[in-house]
Protein 1
Amino acid sequence: MKFPVVTVTLVVAALGYVFWNQTQEPSAPVAPADFTNLAANPAERSAVVDLAVTQIPELCEQAAGKGSDAQARAECIKLAESRTSSCRRMVYDLFPDLVASDAVFRDISITMMNCLVPQSGVVQP
């Protein structure tokens, strides 16, 4: 029986990559200030989507209302988090990879937020 050199090499390479990846510095969190001058400094679509995902607790607080209980907000957050991957796919299909204008940034943000936490049709003054 031959020694499985190729299999062992692939497993060692995979373990090496995992170890290397764990030692890397985590990327900086996305902040709204990163999107101030999109014409001169375009952002990636994924960064805009990540920013919208970080806003889930605030969106749920607005959707549930200020005086609502914590259980309603927790359910909203749970539902929004379960929608994250399908909302990402939808936005990735609809918008370009690079966001170079405020209008595209706004459209991606609003589309993503409406997908994560659908609002009722009631307009409040």
Protein 2
Amino acid sequence: MKKKRVRTDNTYLISSDDTENPKLLGKVLKSGRDSLFLDWYFGYDRNTGAKNRRRETLKGLYLYTSPKSESERTHNKQTLALAKRIRNEKEQAYLKDTEGYCIAMAENGVAFVDLCSDYLAERDRSSISQYGQIKMAVTQYKRFAEKEGITHYKVKTITR
């Protein structure tokens, strides 16, 4: 895990993408644990210049600042994965409310990675550039998802 860049208010960014809304952040507590929260940004008021933001605490989700045992490290990984999933679900709900679309998750759907793998299996390699681009994109996504602890959601449809 890379070193945390703690800000002056004892918070640090966990989200890997700067464009995420909400962002997942942690706050260093005096107890030796880090609390997790979501930071929503809704733009700014042009008249006052004030930023419109809201923070939402993820109650009951804490990380060990310096995990000393294997169980503490496992706890941190599981808690972080849960927090990222909560952040993703809240982002999808926000997108549906504001932009009018979301990615519908389905129990009986197909995982995106499996969909791409099936597509590649059906294609001949006559279109080498397209085949190679899709294969490379799936490989890069798998690496990213593994590094970030992202589960492969099953996608039913993308609705608008």
